[in-house]
Every structure is written in C-alpha cells, then in structure tokens.
Amino acid sequence: MDTATSDSDMGSVESSCHCQEGWLSPRMKFILSTTAAVASDLIIDTGEMAEELGHVGGVYLAEHIPGDQLPRGKKSVVSWIEGFAAIFGVIHDMFEAEKIPVADALELALSQLPKNKQKLIKAYGKNGAEVDSVLEALVHGAKEEWEENEFEATHCYDNEWDALPKCAEHDLNWTLAEDMLAG
Q1: φ, ψ for residue 57, nearest 5 deg
Q2: Which domain of life is it from (predicted)?
Q3: How confident is the model at residue 4 (pLDDT cuts 50, 70, 90)?
Q4: Ordered DSSP codes for 68-126
Q5: Which among 122, 124, 110, 135 has a CA at the least distance from the CA of 71?
Q6: Is 76 in contact with 47 (CB distance < 8 Å)?
C-alpha cells in the first residue's frame, strides 16, 4: 500500500485548518485582539501618573519599547501616551475586521486615520519609535499575561473561548506571532 500523500489529500488537510493565513490561530487572534483592546484603555489609565512625572515609567506595556524610543518631558509624554494607545486601538480594530496587523498593514491603516489621530501617531514616533515595537510589545505583554494565568482567568471564562477551534501548532506560538507581525 502506498503511504505517500497526494496533493488532494494535502488540500483536505489544509482546508480543515482554521488558522488565518496559515499561522494565526483563532485562539492566538483572540488573545492578541483582546490584549490590544485592553492596552488601548490601560495605557491611558496608567499614563495619568506619567503625565505628571514627565516619563512613561509604569505605563502599561511601555517597558517593552526600547528606552531610546521613549519620550522625555511632560508635554511629549502626554502625546506619546495618546499615540501609543491609539496604535493599540487600530490593532484591535484590524483584528475585528479580520485583518492581520502586520507592520506594513498597520502602518497603512495608521496613515489613513484622521489628521488629529495622525498627529498622535507622529508624537509616538518622534524619538524613532516604530510600529514594530508596538507589535512586539503586544506579543510580549500577551505572553506574560498568559504565562501568569492572568489572561485566561480574566478573559476566557465564557463559552466564546471554549468554542474557538484549537490549533496545537499555533495557539501559543509566541515566537511565530512576533515574527509574523513585527517581521
């Protein structure tokens, strides 16, 4: 008996895969999208103290941005925080629209924002900060919360999580997610 797999057999295996573009599993998408939505709010909430101090220490997920890309001074901190939060909001919106926010697609989406939002995005990038850093912060933050059981305890308590198809290869493949999103 021939055990080789034919092209038609391969097609049936691929068609049963629920991963978007062959790598983004429904569960990883849920984790990243939820983290982005939470981040867009928490960055603003945790940024209130930073505005008073003139630095972003303590701002949610800012520890994942390279230090030389962080702002200094009260005025620049305020705009940077708002821009940082706005980028996470766009990432969440892209996931909700069934788009994957890879760096190029995210930059395109950001360039199509209204002028007032684009000013915030420019303030975020003033010190050389790039969207790749935000995507890396997204994946690192999601991974940390998952590994500390915070994400699952907070966001996976209903039937929505249980109903998501599982993918043994991609569900918690943080390295793949970071490589694909940030490049």
Answers
A1: -55, 130
A2: Eukaryota
A3: very low
A4: GGS--SHHHHHHHHHHHHHHHHHHHHHHHTT----HHHHHHHHHTS-HHHHHHHHHHTT
A5: 124
A6: no
